[in-house]
Amino acid sequence: MTNNSMKHTNLLINESSPYLLQHAHNPVNWHSWNEETLQKAKDENKLILVSIGYSACHWCHVMEHESFEDEVVAELMNGNFICIKVDREERPDVDQVYMDAIHIIGGRGGWPLNCFALPDGRPFWGGTYFPKEQWIGILNNVVQLYDTQKLKLEQQAADVTVGIRRNEIFASEYDGKSFDKEILDEMVQNFSMSFDNKEGGNIGAPKFPMPNNYLYLLRYYSLTKKREILDQVELTLHKMASGGIYDQVGGGFARYSVDDHWHVPHFEKMLYDNAQLVSLYSEAYRLTKKKFYKQVIIETLEFIQREMISPEGAFYSSLDADSEGEEGKFYVWEKDEIKSIIVTDVDIVLEYFGIERNAIWEDGKNVLIKAMTFPKLQKRI
Questions:
Q1: Which domains does the chain have, with CATH numbers?
Q2: Of 46, 130, 225, 300, whose CB has the highest number of CB atoms within 10 Å?
Q3: pTM of the full structure
């Protein structure tokens, strides 16, 4: 936040959410999600812009700096929309509705989530992060469409609303079919169609850990003893814990990797991700007794105890991707930094972490990985 932005104060100053308070001094006239705000949109017959994020979200910070702190952009938003800021960690119910809307429209979900809605709150279009100039163009286009093609937007909103309601429908009656092994086999067959047999996880980028999926596969292996399933899970666990998505110095996992080989993470660390991954690696250790998994478990729990527990004993939900205003600053290394810390066997350390080779990221910075196996390391020492 710039000093210039402190001259503005909006209604979010009355909120307790860390994310909403981050936006309390934007020139955008942000409102919180409540009945009074929704009624205001109806009374003034103004379109609603729902912008959803959370305090540790890197691209939320970027869009705030580029657009929401800009007075020209803010004037365009304030003049045409009732602008609502939502903390997804505070209101996951609201986040789910508008995230479903984005998926139904055909967009790709993520945060910040920016969704446009009619004055009655029904969404008709949206997306995630937009650079400033693109965002200005989108705002102008939405306003023009509402002025000239209102019926078309209302039909789009009606279609999206039907889709959202369908997503919320669950079968309430037992259909008489038995839950048998064939269903389990079919689920695994569906999983296997996207297996990355070289790097683990699913094919392509970005790569998310998806711990619940792999817990299921471990339990499926326990039932069937199909070795290829265990091999795929172990490949994934090894690649994740050896890559940059895992903090090789401090322990704990970042939310996902932006590439297809677990190297460069989206640097934020989420409590719920690490909690699930501790469970996954624990079950893998119980099954295989591999010491590598135990090491990951201990290091991750030590990270949580050290950095994710408040002085009052409560858990923090996340760590920001940005450090001192720079993405991943606390997690990347230059070669000279490491050489200034390591006294002996510096060449082995550089090789082990892949410095300026496999670990290189950008601008001479490295995201540490395990580039050398333990047996090879033992031979070098």
A1: 4-167 (3.40.30.10), 181-323 (1.50.10.20), 334-381 (no CATH)
A2: 300
A3: 0.78
